[in-house]
Amino acid sequence: xxxxxxxxxxxxxxxxxxxxxLDRVVPxxxxxxxxxxxxxxxxxxxxxxxxxTRFRGSRQTQMDRVALPKGHILGWVAPSGDNKPKPxxxxxxxxxxxxxxxxxxxxxxMKEEIIKASWEDDx
Length: 123
Prior knowledge:
Layout: E1 16-17, E2 24-26, E3 40-41, H1 58-66, H2 95-122
Antiparallel strand pairs: 1-2, 2-3
């Protein structure tokens, strides 16, 4: 049997295992005014409130184990490396997008004609 560590780990409530007697104790500590608090022995089997974990039922623990990472969306699949964006000139556009493109070109031509006409009138 190995000996416990010289500086034992403390629980949340401050209880540690005494390396000499192997009893659970709250080790002695020093107050701000310099006086020393006595070491307090803890009864065997006693667990303070702050050391208790919150009760989780079997279904809750199972749900915790199978829980998705934060921010994960069900059904979403990351895009694979095969899907590369096509260059702008070669992209396939829908029928309505083609119509809108033609209308835009026509509007731009009309604006250019109006601008040319206004410059020619001033001469």
